[in-house]
Amino acid sequence: MKLSAALNEFLRYQRLRNNSLATIETYTVVISKFIEWVEDIDCAALTADKVNDYNLYLRECVQLVSVRTYIRHIRVFIHFCIRKHWCADIYNDIILPKKPVKIIEILTPEEIKILMHQFDSSFYGLRNMAMVMLMLDCGLRANEVCTLVPDNVNYKYKYVKVCGKGNKERIVPLGNALVEVLKRYILRRPSYANFLFVSAVGDPLKRTAFKKLFKKLRDKTGIKRLHPHLLRHTFATNYLLYSDGDIYKLSMLLGHSDVTTSEIYLHYANYFSFMQHKKSFSFLDTFGASGALD
Q1: Known catalytic residue at 232
Q2: The whole model's pTM is what?
């Protein structure tokens, strides 16, 4: 069987599993590019060396974190082919790049204040403020914000039902300030619209509009690193710093299927806790090392 035919079967399997359209689209794009590079060979001719060579090729084109994502998707496809006995078991010989560990500089309290002062009481001002607050105060992803429906917001008990990756639903509590902003926005929003966040005439919010919003906010605030996912990072780190610090609760709030995905925020929280307090234990400081300066 050719790789292209195997891809069609793989995508059919993903649809049968009821994976989201976004997930299926990502698999389609990533694996199609791999097949184009390796050429539409027979599955039986696929080797780990070919995949690892593609790994090295990708590093010349995109960042390492993206290479890791692409190879993970390709490995899922190859694992499917192995189970179907279309190719040899090369799964364990495919090298997944180590995940680069970077400290993400979350928004400071001063930057959050600057950001939240960029919105007025107009329709778009209230809408944009509510969207930013949902990411900053609840940790929602950009796509989760865009696809929220009005019925999933419970104003009485102050929570929102979120449909995350893989169509997995979760409940996320809302803060008092966010509830008030949402209530004010709802009064201005077209009642006939299907989604919660829409244009003034009720049209669904497009990704391009979301990108334009954050470009505008970057320009107005001067916070050049500002992007939607930074708000989610800020929420997660602050949750561990100022809440009960329960990594399992955080994992549920973020919609992570594996708690280890959330553990990176423990590293961030420890780092920012040190930066805030400006002190840490030092053996040499404690027992004296002044002689080294003499």
Answers
A1: yes
A2: 0.71
